[in-house]
Amino acid sequence: MVQKKPSRQEREKLILLGLVNLYLQTGKPIGSNTLKENGFKNVSSATIRNYFTKLEELGYLHQQHASGGRIPTDLAYKLYAHTYADEIKISKDHEEYLKQELFQETKEIGRYLQNACEALAKLTNSAVVLSSPRFDQDFITSTKLIAIDDHRCLCIIVTNFGFVHTEILYSSIPISKLCLTRMEAYFHYRLTGLDKPILEDGEESTALQFYNEIFLRHIASYTHFTTEDLYKTGFSKLLHYPEFHETKALANSLALFENDGNLRMLLHDCLQSETLRFWIGEDLLPYTPSPIVSSLIAIPYFIHNKPIGTIAILGPTRLPYRKVFGLLRNFSIHLSECLTKSLFTFTISYREPQAQTISYKNKKNFFQGNPYLLLEDQREG
């Protein structure tokens, strides 16, 4: 059977996809001879230049110098990304790395999600953000007090699931580092019932005040939340790309990650779609100022086949989209599988953010009746 000859429009697309693919690999403007030598030996250089001219007129390519090669525009990247949006292939090395990092059942959900973000940042060489619901049946396991100055200290709270929270405490009277050490021992005693420390005059009342303050703040933040928890990492990866060596371009790209409202809006759009989404270059202008040389690619992950969070990477527009799409799809599959197993194994439930109110009539029963709240490990033994 004789194959039908591709139409001119189809040939233009093949030339464009070939150019984008080569530019993503080299980062250098692509000339007609270069493209001919890399997959288009049956097409003359003159014909390729004609296609270049047409594609430039359509807004897919631009030329920095009259005699220089062509560079893809955001429009070209979008066409390339749409063409390979369903890519799921990854290398054997990447598959093994994902299994090594993600295939584990653990109740330390906080640590697990942070490690997962770190692994994805390493694989994609990009900044990473992950949104997650709130996981229940957690309790505080330890606290650490660090002096800021004579009147302020930082309290670090670590939970059984590996989550870490911080609060700043203020004292009207100066507190020494030695005093903080004794207060920290007092916190440990209150959490475990073991090794009650000997406090100096006046210290126990301050320690009790600090303890109550910390735990009431923890109650407030743990039981009532209106936005997803966010994990972020990999910002320094952006410095590897020449596109971000210009200060303003880097600042504008990072502004997207620092504006949690806009970031959550994009992540929520992806979560609602239940599929991979991407925003390339000018697509991000409603959310961050110009000039913008970034791309954001996001995909939801699932627990028991229900979408409950989004994982996204931020990099330059010159991203290897086919590779990234495959990595993200496999990452989502493995993360979803492992989270589902861990929550089942350790009997962990989760809540999605929503507005919650507590009736004044029921406030006295709040602590006893809240099924999600565990301040301390109250298991026997």
Mean pLDDT over the full residue set: 88
Computed over alpha carbons, the radius of gyration is 27 Å
* Tertiary shape: elongated
What is the number of helices?
Answer: 12
Range of strand content: 15-25%
User: Largest sheet at a glance?
Assistant: 5 strands, antiparallel
Quick gist of this model?
By secondary structure, the protein is of the alpha+beta class. It has helices at 8-26, 32-36, 45-57, 74-83, 92-102, 109-124, 177-192, 203-223, 247-258, 260-273, 321-345, 366-369, and strands spanning 61-63, 70-72, 127-132, 134-135, 140-147, 152-159, 164-170, 229-233, 277-280, 294-303, 306-316, 350-351.
What does this structure look like?
The structure is a single chain. The protein has 381 residues and is an alpha+beta fold. The protein contains twelve helices and twelve strands. The strands form four sheets. Strands 8-3-11-10-9 form a five-stranded antiparallel β-sheet, sandwiched between helices. It has a three-stranded antiparallel β-sheet with strand order 5-6-7. Helix 5 packs parallel to helix 11 and helix 7 (177-192) crosses helix 8 (203-223).
